[in-house]
Amino acid sequence: MKKIIFLFIIVVYTISSAQESEICKCSLLTKSEDSIKKFSNNVATISKKEALRPPFDFISIKYLKSYAKSEDVVDSVDLKIKSFLNIKKIDNDDDYLHYKITDSIEKAEFSKTFGNIPKPLIIKSGKLNYSIAILYFSNYKSKYYLALSTDEGKTWKNYYTGLVRKFNYILKSNSQFPLWKDSEHIQIEADIVRMIKPMTFPGLKEEFETVKKNALLTLHLKEILKDSDNDGFNDLEEELELFTNPLSDDTDHDGIPDYEDPNPKYKSVNNDFTKLLQAIMYGDYPVVENSDVRQSEFIVNLETFEKDFNNPAIFFHGQETKFSDSFNFSVIVTDNQSFKQITPVGQKIIFLTSEEFSRYKKNSFMNLYTPNYSKLFPCDDASDTYLFVTDNLWIGRTYLIKRIPQGWLIKTVSSWQS
Q1: 98 and 85 in contact (C-beta within 8 Å)?
Q2: pLDDT tens digits for 348-376?
Q3: DSSP secondary structure string for all residues of 337-374
Q4: Residue 138 — φ and ψ, nearest 5°?
Q5: What residues does each domain of the chain span?
Q6: Under a CB-based contact definition with an 8 Å cutoff, are residues 272 and 407 in contact?
Q7: Gyration radius (Cα) of the chain, Å
Q8: Strand 143-149, strand 297-301: pairing
Q9: What's the whole-model pTM score?
């Protein structure tokens, strides 16, 4: 199979069955900052001076004369893949076989763990008396975590360090220093980098430059280990990533602890609007026979909704859950109150308001690439009729929604795909 070079371009198209006359007049959609047209993912680059400034007070930096070099770091999984391909003399043009071999080796390597953390994700580990610490990165968005055991590995807790790879550190697995500096601090060598060119989405990746190659970071554990509500998420993760209440183990007071709640920020509500939005959200299965969200028109039957939705055949495109991820949530930006109160199926969701997102995206450039769902905008010239706009990064749709005796009639009036 010859390699295929994919040129990513935005293809904007209108569903053939949708006529311009079908789109209602909607002044709120035009004016609202919540519309997809007003939704901006722009990111500003930072100066070298800003990159050198520690992001938190609990981090201090020392610059070394003799230091570990990042170019000497070996990716053991990548090395095994290349070695296998070379020994077996696999044709470089056979993409499918390359994928199968890579996937098989990665699964085998990720099944090998230390303290329940897949070994390929571990940066550095160390033992001090009865305490074992493992510094690792998550397989999703490359956030840096600390796994800690105070009983010689019998039990473990995971703590978000507040740091994300390349924002603005790349921690070195070949650091010459022991992970434990003392009982209150860990230390790790790092490159300090900054982004000089944001990613063009879809298209080219971000570009970075190395500002310093000889940094030694020291992290005070007091702030990292702080879990005020003892819910399993440290305060840093709740404040920076989850936007849940660090002082309550049940943010929405629905009786489900945040750690187990598929929607920890908002109580689930069961009404006509949440059913409508759940059907659109999970519309890759037939809500009624021969109808699904990818068709230009379908019906959500409220009379049979509970039965239809009881066992949906949902197809998810996200990454499989990694055991080492402390919290594997999808993140969605919306100011739609009904949408925030749906009951997620087969996944956990953090719903962020547009105001929360403005803070969230500052934590990492990776946080920019977050799906956005609009409010339900009532049409000016038609009763019980709404426009709803979605942007899932790779695909977006505008729906015209009208209440009918059975429930909701939904038409896709425009769509784009990258």
Answers
A1: yes
A2: 899 999 999 989 988 877 777 889 999 99
A3: HHHHTS--SSS-EEEE-HHHHHHHTTS-GGGG---EE-
A4: -75, 150
A5: 18-41+262-314+322-417, 48-69+119-225
A6: yes
A7: 24
A8: unpaired
A9: 0.84
